[in-house]
Amino acid sequence: MNKRQVLIAILVVFAIAVPFLNKPYHIDDTVVLIVSQKILDNPFDPFQGVINWFGYNAPVWEITTNPPFLSYYLAPFAAVSDFSEIALHAAMMLFLFLLAGAMFFLSRRFTKGSLFPLLFVMFSPAIMISGNVMRDVPATGLAAAAVALFIYGTDREDRRYLFLGAVFAGLATLTKYSSIIFLPVLLLYPFFKQKYRLMIWIWPIPVIMGLWCLHNQLMYGQIHIVDLTLNRRDESGLSWQDKVCGAFVIFSSMIYLLPALLRDLYKRRDMFLIESKYFIALAAWWFVQSYFKGKADGEYLFWAITGAVFLFIILIDGLRRGIAYVTNRRDEEAADSLFLFAWLCAPIIFSIVLVPFQAVRHQLNSLLPLMLLAFRYLEREPRPAIHAQKIWLVVLIVIQAAMAYVLHFADYEYAKTYRDFAQDAKQKWVSEDHDTWYVSHWGWQFYADRAGFKQVNGGEVYPQEGDILFWPKFNLPMYVFIGRDGILEPRAEFLELEKHTPLEEIVYPGTIPIRVMNFRGACFYATVHNNLPYRFFQDIELETMRVYRVEFEKSDDPASTEAVEPPNQE
Length: 570
Prior knowledge:
By secondary structure, the chain is mainly α.
């Protein structure tokens, strides 16, 4: 093992995590932290009580869509640090170390041991920005470690590593249910290696999940994953076409490797891929334009088309190299390619078919096999102008890493608006003469609760005349007027309130012209419709916090709107 490369991998983790240790809690961090607090209250009942996530109280069981392993892991750190951002983000570095270590091993196993695959994964905006205290990076790190350990155990027929790999996969599934896809992924490796008797060593995965399901049945009288699967409706209303387009723009905007692949296509005179990429580009352009009825702008089309080409090149090369396994099962290289191809397809298909909406974090499990297959192509012999190729890769990783830092800073600034406003508003607006209320959720909810503001509870608890209400502009305000049973029943006076001139508007403009989350074209955490994970040169503020004095207009016949159930955005 190259100690120098191991040291570099460790330094990479510090480089991407330490500058953002004090990042404010953001997006679904709040749900994870609320569950951690409930675990501290009663370790055996993580889903106890209620949570006001959509503007009305609902059982935690119904709101959360994932199991609580991460909340259990973070609970002791939260207890000793009083939910310190620095402490919890430092605790989250463990999963980045797992991811880096797994990628380091897998690069040595499936490529020529270059550090480039590790660098492109770790310095991806997908990994860097997603490193909040949400479940996605932890699940990815645990799953990556599971694959690395299971492969190592299979190659050496060592049951200790097979068992440990399956345990890590089970923990990944207890972090995010979507990690269950790694059960068939792990099975495939010994299958392709014709070591069929080793396939039994995936048994810890169903055992771990079975114990969690048994806990659910004994504690709640039902099983959480079964309830999610059978009784929850997909309220997003998004088609598979929307999620395919989202996947295209995610892959190209998160990994800047396509220029190096295109260069090698032409250097090798790989005529099949050279000619077919034009067809794929045209097909992607037609697909996007047809689906969005010509409303996709040039920036969206660029990322969608390049993403389709990028994914096509990698998938087709992996498949054509793996197809030899059908006729020669002793072909180790073909078996490896076919395994990586299947591993890459699993999370992509899962996110398109079973996940309600597309998001960057939903494709994190795709990054490792994507990079391994890409570098298997780049390192194939004969390698044209190796020195020039390395220069291209260095230039591309520098550009990608620089963009990742810029984007993470933009996301940091956005998250910081809520922490800053909560601290300032507590000093300025809290008084014994009135109550102070807020609407909306995400990280804003954590800081508003900490500041002592009351949350509007649709159908049950509303502000009174003369109270102060804080209303963020971009933080899903349409979900705060919720009646009983989760039905949207806006009170007329609240709808009118937004039309009035607020007492104060605090605009947070941002220091760089890039936006990552405003639902005006930039949606890193929910890449839906013709939104991109990030947008350049948007003349839109990060957030505007509005302060209202509650003054109701008297009416005998209040306005009403059609009842609509809000989708679960967790």
